[in-house]
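sorry for the late reply, my laptop died twice this morning and i had to redo everyting from scratch. anyway the thing you sent over, i finally got around to it. pasting the sequence first so we're on the same page, its 411 residues, then the predicted structure underneath. double check i copied it right bc i was rushing
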Amino acid sequence: MRTRRSSRVSHWRSLLVGVVVAITVSASFMISEPDRVRVATFTCGGSADPAWPDGGFEVAFQANTTNLWTSAPGGNADWQLGMLPGTSPAIAALPGGGFEVAFQANTANLWTVGTSGCRDWRLGMLPGTSPAIAALPGGGFEVAFQANTTNLWTVGSAGNTAWPLGMLPGTSPAIAALPGGGFEVAFQANTTNLWTVGSAGNTAWPLGMLPGTSPALAAPVAAPFASSISGINAALANRMRSSWRPGCPVPLSDLRYLTVNYRGFDGADHVGELVVAASVASSVVQVFRQLYTAGFPLASLRLVDDFGGSDDQSMAANNSSAFNCRPVTGGSRFSEHSYGTAIDLNPVQNPYLSGAVVLPEQGRAFTARPPAPGVILPGGAAVTAFARIGWTWGGTWTNPIDYMHFSVSGR
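ok and here's the structure:
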Protein backbone atom coordinates (compact mmCIF):
# COMPACT_ATOMS: atom_id res chain seq x y z
CA MET A 1 0.00 0.00 0.00
CA ARG A 2 2.82 2.41 0.88
CA THR A 3 4.58 1.79 -2.43
CA ARG A 4 1.45 2.38 -4.46
CA ARG A 5 0.67 5.52 -2.48
CA SER A 6 4.19 6.90 -2.91
CA SER A 7 3.99 6.45 -6.67
CA ARG A 8 0.66 8.26 -6.64
CA VAL A 9 2.20 11.21 -4.82
CA SER A 10 4.97 11.38 -7.39
CA HIS A 11 2.41 11.07 -10.18
CA TRP A 12 0.40 14.00 -8.83
CA ARG A 13 3.49 16.12 -8.40
CA SER A 14 4.36 15.72 -12.04
CA LEU A 15 0.79 16.20 -13.25
CA LEU A 16 0.10 19.28 -11.14
CA VAL A 17 3.37 21.12 -11.61
CA GLY A 18 1.76 23.64 -13.93
CA VAL A 19 -1.33 24.12 -11.80
CA VAL A 20 0.36 26.22 -9.13
CA VAL A 21 1.26 28.75 -11.81
CA ALA A 22 -2.29 28.82 -13.15
CA ILE A 23 -3.85 29.21 -9.74
CA THR A 24 -1.45 32.04 -8.84
CA VAL A 25 -2.22 34.16 -11.87
CA SER A 26 -5.97 33.54 -12.23
CA ALA A 27 -8.19 36.24 -10.75
CA SER A 28 -11.39 35.73 -8.78
CA PHE A 29 -14.38 37.79 -9.71
CA MET A 30 -17.25 39.27 -7.81
CA ILE A 31 -20.32 37.03 -7.99
CA SER A 32 -23.18 38.89 -9.58
CA GLU A 33 -26.61 37.76 -8.42
CA PRO A 34 -28.98 36.58 -9.70
CA ASP A 35 -26.77 35.59 -12.67
CA ARG A 36 -26.39 31.86 -13.25
CA VAL A 37 -23.26 30.25 -11.84
CA ARG A 38 -20.38 30.13 -14.30
CA VAL A 39 -18.40 26.93 -13.85
CA ALA A 40 -15.01 26.21 -15.43
CA THR A 41 -13.64 22.69 -15.38
CA PHE A 42 -9.91 22.31 -14.87
CA THR A 43 -8.43 18.81 -15.14
CA CYS A 44 -5.07 18.41 -13.46
CA GLY A 45 -3.26 16.51 -16.20
CA GLY A 46 -5.89 13.75 -16.34
CA SER A 47 -8.65 12.24 -14.27
CA ALA A 48 -7.83 11.84 -10.60
CA ASP A 49 -8.26 8.58 -8.72
CA PRO A 50 -6.90 9.08 -5.21
CA ALA A 51 -6.55 5.96 -3.12
CA TRP A 52 -8.84 5.50 -0.15
CA PRO A 53 -7.47 3.08 2.45
CA ASP A 54 -9.94 0.34 3.40
CA GLY A 55 -11.11 0.91 6.94
CA GLY A 56 -8.81 3.94 7.24
CA PHE A 57 -9.09 7.68 6.88
CA GLU A 58 -7.83 10.66 4.91
CA VAL A 59 -6.82 14.05 6.33
CA ALA A 60 -6.81 17.32 4.38
CA PHE A 61 -4.90 20.33 5.69
CA GLN A 62 -3.02 23.51 4.78
CA ALA A 63 0.68 22.78 5.12
CA ASN A 64 3.17 25.35 6.39
CA THR A 65 4.03 25.95 2.73
CA THR A 66 0.37 27.08 2.35
CA ASN A 67 -0.19 24.21 -0.13
CA LEU A 68 -3.04 21.74 0.19
CA TRP A 69 -1.94 18.34 1.47
CA THR A 70 -3.81 15.08 2.11
CA SER A 71 -2.43 12.47 4.45
CA ALA A 72 -3.36 8.91 5.38
CA PRO A 73 -1.73 5.83 6.94
CA GLY A 74 -0.73 4.72 3.44
CA GLY A 75 1.12 7.90 2.46
CA ASN A 76 0.94 11.66 1.92
CA ALA A 77 0.19 13.82 -1.11
CA ASP A 78 1.28 17.40 -1.80
CA TRP A 79 -1.31 18.62 -4.31
CA GLN A 80 0.93 21.62 -5.15
CA LEU A 81 -2.11 23.89 -5.01
CA GLY A 82 -1.81 27.04 -2.94
CA MET A 83 -4.45 27.82 -0.30
CA LEU A 84 -5.30 31.24 1.06
CA PRO A 85 -3.26 31.48 4.27
CA GLY A 86 -5.33 30.98 7.40
CA THR A 87 -8.18 29.08 5.75
CA SER A 88 -9.10 25.44 6.23
CA PRO A 89 -10.16 22.75 3.74
CA ALA A 90 -13.19 20.46 4.02
CA ILE A 91 -13.21 16.79 3.00
CA ALA A 92 -15.93 14.21 2.37
CA ALA A 93 -15.75 10.47 1.69
CA LEU A 94 -17.77 9.65 -1.45
CA PRO A 95 -20.29 6.75 -1.33
CA GLY A 96 -18.77 5.02 -4.36
CA GLY A 97 -15.21 5.32 -3.04
CA GLY A 98 -12.55 8.00 -2.96
CA PHE A 99 -12.89 11.49 -1.51
CA GLU A 100 -13.39 15.13 -2.43
CA VAL A 101 -11.73 18.19 -0.89
CA ALA A 102 -13.06 21.77 -1.04
CA PHE A 103 -10.83 24.74 -0.21
CA GLN A 104 -10.23 28.46 -0.78
CA ALA A 105 -7.32 28.80 -3.17
CA ASN A 106 -4.74 31.56 -2.89
CA THR A 107 -6.73 33.39 -5.58
CA ALA A 108 -9.67 33.42 -3.10
CA ASN A 109 -11.61 31.20 -5.54
CA LEU A 110 -13.40 28.01 -4.50
CA TRP A 111 -11.63 24.83 -5.64
CA THR A 112 -12.46 21.14 -5.34
CA VAL A 113 -9.99 18.31 -5.88
CA GLY A 114 -10.18 14.56 -5.48
CA THR A 115 -11.77 11.57 -7.16
CA SER A 116 -13.61 13.73 -9.70
CA GLY A 117 -10.46 15.60 -10.69
CA CYS A 118 -9.54 19.24 -10.05
CA ARG A 119 -11.94 22.13 -10.54
CA ASP A 120 -11.56 25.87 -10.20
CA TRP A 121 -15.18 26.93 -9.81
CA ARG A 122 -14.28 30.54 -10.73
CA LEU A 123 -16.38 31.67 -7.79
CA GLY A 124 -14.85 34.13 -5.33
CA MET A 125 -15.05 33.37 -1.63
CA LEU A 126 -14.88 35.97 1.10
CA PRO A 127 -11.17 35.96 1.99
CA GLY A 128 -10.44 34.18 5.24
CA THR A 129 -13.51 31.94 5.18
CA SER A 130 -13.61 28.19 4.66
CA PRO A 131 -16.06 26.01 2.73
CA ALA A 132 -17.99 22.96 3.91
CA ILE A 133 -18.62 19.82 1.84
CA ALA A 134 -20.95 16.83 2.11
CA ALA A 135 -21.20 13.63 0.06
CA LEU A 136 -24.74 13.12 -1.25
CA PRO A 137 -26.67 9.82 -0.85
CA GLY A 138 -27.41 9.69 -4.58
CA GLY A 139 -23.78 10.27 -5.54
CA GLY A 140 -21.56 13.32 -5.91
CA PHE A 141 -21.19 16.14 -3.40
CA GLU A 142 -22.39 19.63 -2.46
CA VAL A 143 -20.27 22.53 -1.21
CA ALA A 144 -21.48 25.45 0.92
CA PHE A 145 -19.45 28.66 1.23
CA GLN A 146 -19.59 32.40 1.90
CA ALA A 147 -19.22 34.19 -1.41
CA ASN A 148 -17.28 37.43 -1.72
CA THR A 149 -20.69 39.16 -1.70
CA THR A 150 -21.01 37.75 1.88
CA ASN A 151 -24.07 35.77 0.73
CA LEU A 152 -24.40 32.02 1.18
CA TRP A 153 -23.81 29.86 -1.91
CA THR A 154 -24.12 26.12 -2.52
CA VAL A 155 -22.67 24.37 -5.58
CA GLY A 156 -22.21 20.78 -6.69
CA SER A 157 -24.05 17.67 -7.84
CA ALA A 158 -27.39 18.78 -6.36
CA GLY A 159 -27.27 22.09 -8.23
CA ASN A 160 -25.84 25.59 -7.83
CA THR A 161 -27.76 28.13 -5.74
CA ALA A 162 -27.02 31.73 -4.87
CA TRP A 163 -29.06 32.04 -1.68
CA PRO A 164 -30.14 35.69 -1.20
CA LEU A 165 -29.13 35.38 2.44
CA GLY A 166 -26.32 37.41 3.94
CA MET A 167 -23.81 35.73 6.24
CA LEU A 168 -21.87 37.48 8.98
CA PRO A 169 -18.59 38.35 7.25
CA GLY A 170 -15.74 36.04 8.18
CA THR A 171 -17.88 33.09 9.26
CA SER A 172 -18.20 29.72 7.54
CA PRO A 173 -21.24 27.51 6.95
CA ALA A 174 -21.76 23.83 7.79
CA ILE A 175 -23.46 21.30 5.51
CA ALA A 176 -24.77 17.75 5.96
CA ALA A 177 -26.35 15.27 3.54
CA LEU A 178 -29.76 13.98 4.60
CA PRO A 179 -30.37 10.19 4.58
CA GLY A 180 -33.55 10.59 2.54
CA GLY A 181 -31.78 12.74 -0.05
CA GLY A 182 -30.74 16.37 -0.37
CA PHE A 183 -28.83 18.44 2.19
CA GLU A 184 -29.16 21.10 4.87
CA VAL A 185 -26.88 24.08 5.58
CA ALA A 186 -26.42 25.92 8.88
CA PHE A 187 -24.79 29.37 9.13
CA GLN A 188 -24.60 32.61 11.11
CA ALA A 189 -26.67 35.22 9.34
CA ASN A 190 -25.61 38.86 9.15
CA THR A 191 -28.11 39.47 11.96
CA THR A 192 -25.89 37.13 14.06
CA ASN A 193 -28.86 34.74 14.31
CA LEU A 194 -28.67 31.06 13.39
CA TRP A 195 -30.22 30.05 10.04
CA THR A 196 -30.73 26.65 8.42
CA VAL A 197 -31.66 26.21 4.75
CA GLY A 198 -31.94 23.32 2.33
CA SER A 199 -33.98 20.24 1.51
CA ALA A 200 -35.47 20.00 5.01
CA GLY A 201 -36.72 23.58 4.83
CA ASN A 202 -35.51 27.12 5.54
CA THR A 203 -35.67 28.43 9.09
CA ALA A 204 -34.60 31.73 10.65
CA TRP A 205 -34.01 30.56 14.20
CA PRO A 206 -34.58 33.42 16.71
CA LEU A 207 -31.33 32.44 18.39
CA GLY A 208 -28.33 34.74 18.48
CA MET A 209 -24.86 33.35 17.83
CA LEU A 210 -21.66 34.81 19.21
CA PRO A 211 -20.41 37.07 16.40
CA GLY A 212 -17.59 35.56 14.37
CA THR A 213 -18.38 31.93 15.20
CA SER A 214 -19.50 29.17 12.84
CA PRO A 215 -22.04 26.37 13.46
CA ALA A 216 -21.66 22.59 13.07
CA LEU A 217 -24.29 20.31 11.53
CA ALA A 218 -24.92 16.55 11.55
CA ALA A 219 -27.51 14.22 9.99
CA PRO A 220 -28.58 10.74 11.22
CA VAL A 221 -26.29 7.87 10.33
CA ALA A 222 -27.99 5.14 8.32
CA ALA A 223 -28.16 1.53 9.48
CA PRO A 224 -25.45 -0.77 8.11
CA PHE A 225 -26.00 -2.69 4.88
CA ALA A 226 -26.92 -6.36 5.27
CA SER A 227 -27.07 -9.19 2.72
CA SER A 228 -27.13 -12.96 2.33
CA ILE A 229 -26.35 -15.50 -0.41
CA SER A 230 -27.82 -19.02 -0.47
CA GLY A 231 -28.59 -21.86 -2.85
CA ILE A 232 -32.01 -22.66 -4.29
CA ASN A 233 -33.68 -25.04 -1.80
CA ALA A 234 -36.80 -27.11 -2.46
CA ALA A 235 -39.20 -24.48 -1.12
CA LEU A 236 -37.68 -21.74 -3.26
CA ALA A 237 -37.60 -24.00 -6.33
CA ASN A 238 -41.32 -24.57 -5.88
CA ARG A 239 -41.85 -20.81 -5.59
CA MET A 240 -39.84 -20.23 -8.81
CA ARG A 241 -42.03 -22.45 -11.01
CA SER A 242 -43.09 -19.47 -13.13
CA SER A 243 -39.53 -18.16 -13.73
CA TRP A 244 -37.66 -21.46 -14.16
CA ARG A 245 -38.60 -24.70 -15.94
CA PRO A 246 -36.80 -27.63 -17.57
CA GLY A 247 -35.15 -26.45 -20.78
CA CYS A 248 -33.93 -23.16 -19.30
CA PRO A 249 -30.24 -22.48 -20.15
CA VAL A 250 -29.01 -22.79 -16.53
CA PRO A 251 -29.90 -25.37 -13.87
CA LEU A 252 -31.18 -24.27 -10.48
CA SER A 253 -27.90 -25.46 -8.97
CA ASP A 254 -26.11 -22.66 -10.87
CA LEU A 255 -28.35 -19.96 -9.39
CA ARG A 256 -28.17 -18.19 -6.04
CA TYR A 257 -30.82 -16.48 -3.91
CA LEU A 258 -29.79 -13.06 -2.56
CA THR A 259 -31.30 -10.82 0.09
CA VAL A 260 -30.07 -7.23 0.29
CA ASN A 261 -30.97 -4.03 2.09
CA TYR A 262 -32.17 -1.19 -0.12
CA ARG A 263 -33.46 2.34 0.33
CA GLY A 264 -37.07 2.84 -0.64
CA PHE A 265 -38.66 5.92 -2.16
CA ASP A 266 -40.14 6.46 1.28
CA GLY A 267 -36.64 7.02 2.66
CA ALA A 268 -36.84 3.89 4.82
CA ASP A 269 -34.76 0.71 4.68
CA HIS A 270 -36.27 -2.46 3.19
CA VAL A 271 -35.09 -6.02 2.56
CA GLY A 272 -35.24 -7.10 -1.08
CA GLU A 273 -34.64 -10.41 -2.81
CA LEU A 274 -33.38 -11.50 -6.22
CA VAL A 275 -31.97 -14.56 -7.96
CA VAL A 276 -28.76 -14.36 -10.00
CA ALA A 277 -26.11 -16.69 -11.42
CA ALA A 278 -23.81 -18.21 -8.81
CA SER A 279 -20.81 -16.82 -10.67
CA VAL A 280 -21.90 -13.20 -10.16
CA ALA A 281 -23.61 -13.42 -6.75
CA SER A 282 -20.81 -11.83 -4.71
CA SER A 283 -20.24 -8.97 -7.16
CA VAL A 284 -23.98 -8.25 -7.36
CA VAL A 285 -24.08 -7.92 -3.56
CA GLN A 286 -21.31 -5.31 -3.84
CA VAL A 287 -23.42 -3.38 -6.35
CA PHE A 288 -26.39 -3.28 -4.00
CA ARG A 289 -24.10 -2.31 -1.14
CA GLN A 290 -22.95 0.69 -3.17
CA LEU A 291 -26.51 1.61 -4.17
CA TYR A 292 -27.56 1.42 -0.52
CA THR A 293 -24.62 3.52 0.66
CA ALA A 294 -25.26 6.09 -2.08
CA GLY A 295 -28.94 6.29 -1.11
CA PHE A 296 -30.09 5.31 -4.61
CA PRO A 297 -33.77 4.39 -4.06
CA LEU A 298 -35.67 1.37 -5.39
CA ALA A 299 -39.43 1.12 -5.53
CA SER A 300 -39.52 -2.67 -5.09
CA LEU A 301 -37.11 -5.64 -5.19
CA ARG A 302 -39.01 -8.93 -5.41
CA LEU A 303 -38.75 -12.15 -7.39
CA VAL A 304 -40.56 -11.98 -10.72
CA ASP A 305 -42.46 -15.09 -9.56
CA ASP A 306 -44.52 -12.79 -7.33
CA PHE A 307 -45.92 -11.48 -10.63
CA GLY A 308 -46.52 -14.91 -12.17
CA GLY A 309 -43.24 -14.68 -14.10
CA SER A 310 -44.73 -11.83 -16.16
CA ASP A 311 -42.11 -9.25 -17.07
CA ASP A 312 -44.88 -6.83 -18.06
CA GLN A 313 -46.58 -7.09 -14.67
CA SER A 314 -43.29 -6.77 -12.81
CA MET A 315 -42.36 -3.63 -14.78
CA ALA A 316 -45.83 -2.11 -14.31
CA ALA A 317 -45.36 -2.55 -10.55
CA ASN A 318 -42.00 -0.74 -10.82
CA ASN A 319 -40.28 -3.86 -9.51
CA SER A 320 -36.54 -4.34 -9.85
CA SER A 321 -35.64 -7.94 -10.70
CA ALA A 322 -32.97 -10.26 -12.07
CA PHE A 323 -33.48 -13.92 -13.06
CA ASN A 324 -36.41 -14.79 -15.31
CA CYS A 325 -36.18 -17.54 -17.96
CA ARG A 326 -37.83 -15.72 -20.86
CA PRO A 327 -37.11 -14.56 -24.41
CA VAL A 328 -35.73 -11.11 -25.14
CA THR A 329 -38.29 -8.37 -25.59
CA GLY A 330 -39.63 -8.63 -29.13
CA GLY A 331 -37.49 -11.68 -29.98
CA SER A 332 -37.16 -15.44 -29.53
CA ARG A 333 -33.65 -16.05 -28.14
CA PHE A 334 -33.14 -16.32 -24.40
CA SER A 335 -32.82 -13.03 -22.58
CA GLU A 336 -29.72 -12.44 -20.45
CA HIS A 337 -32.13 -12.64 -17.52
CA SER A 338 -32.50 -16.35 -18.34
CA TYR A 339 -28.87 -16.84 -17.33
CA GLY A 340 -29.12 -14.80 -14.11
CA THR A 341 -26.62 -12.29 -15.48
CA ALA A 342 -28.89 -9.26 -15.98
CA ILE A 343 -30.72 -6.93 -13.61
CA ASP A 344 -33.46 -4.35 -14.23
CA LEU A 345 -33.79 -1.37 -11.84
CA ASN A 346 -36.85 0.86 -11.37
CA PRO A 347 -38.57 0.14 -14.73
CA VAL A 348 -40.96 3.10 -14.44
CA GLN A 349 -38.18 5.66 -13.92
CA ASN A 350 -35.97 3.83 -16.45
CA PRO A 351 -38.17 2.51 -19.28
CA TYR A 352 -37.42 0.42 -22.37
CA LEU A 353 -37.71 2.46 -25.60
CA SER A 354 -38.07 1.10 -29.13
CA GLY A 355 -39.42 3.61 -31.63
CA ALA A 356 -42.75 4.79 -30.25
CA VAL A 357 -42.94 1.85 -27.81
CA VAL A 358 -42.38 2.65 -24.13
CA LEU A 359 -42.36 -0.19 -21.58
CA PRO A 360 -43.83 0.09 -19.06
CA GLU A 361 -46.29 2.70 -20.27
CA GLN A 362 -45.99 4.58 -16.96
CA GLY A 363 -42.38 5.25 -17.88
CA ARG A 364 -43.32 7.63 -20.69
CA ALA A 365 -42.98 10.58 -18.29
CA PHE A 366 -39.31 9.64 -17.79
CA THR A 367 -38.21 9.35 -21.42
CA ALA A 368 -36.67 12.84 -21.18
CA ARG A 369 -34.44 11.50 -18.36
CA PRO A 370 -35.14 14.05 -15.64
CA PRO A 371 -32.71 14.00 -12.69
CA ALA A 372 -35.33 12.55 -10.33
CA PRO A 373 -34.95 9.96 -7.53
CA GLY A 374 -34.44 6.46 -8.92
CA VAL A 375 -33.56 7.66 -12.42
CA ILE A 376 -30.38 6.06 -13.79
CA LEU A 377 -28.11 8.67 -15.38
CA PRO A 378 -24.61 8.52 -16.91
CA GLY A 379 -21.99 8.79 -14.19
CA GLY A 380 -24.60 8.23 -11.48
CA ALA A 381 -24.54 5.77 -8.59
CA ALA A 382 -26.10 2.85 -10.49
CA VAL A 383 -23.97 3.13 -13.64
CA THR A 384 -20.81 3.53 -11.56
CA ALA A 385 -21.60 0.58 -9.30
CA PHE A 386 -22.28 -1.82 -12.19
CA ALA A 387 -19.30 -0.56 -14.21
CA ARG A 388 -17.03 -1.50 -11.32
CA ILE A 389 -17.98 -5.17 -11.71
CA GLY A 390 -17.71 -5.00 -15.50
CA TRP A 391 -21.43 -4.88 -16.36
CA THR A 392 -22.83 -2.78 -19.21
CA TRP A 393 -25.81 -0.43 -19.12
CA GLY A 394 -28.62 -0.67 -21.69
CA GLY A 395 -29.01 3.10 -21.50
CA THR A 396 -26.04 3.40 -23.85
CA TRP A 397 -27.78 1.45 -26.63
CA THR A 398 -29.21 3.26 -29.66
CA ASN A 399 -32.30 1.25 -30.67
CA PRO A 400 -33.74 -0.12 -28.53
CA ILE A 401 -32.66 1.81 -25.44
CA ASP A 402 -33.13 -0.11 -22.20
CA TYR A 403 -32.55 2.34 -19.36
CA MET A 404 -33.43 -0.16 -16.62
CA HIS A 405 -31.10 -2.92 -17.86
CA PHE A 406 -27.60 -3.96 -16.75
CA SER A 407 -25.90 -7.15 -17.90
CA VAL A 408 -22.60 -9.03 -18.00
CA SER A 409 -22.62 -9.51 -21.78
CA GLY A 410 -23.85 -6.05 -22.77
CA ARG A 411 -26.97 -7.57 -24.34
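The chain has two domains: 2-208, 227-407.
thats about all i looked at so far, will dig more tmrw
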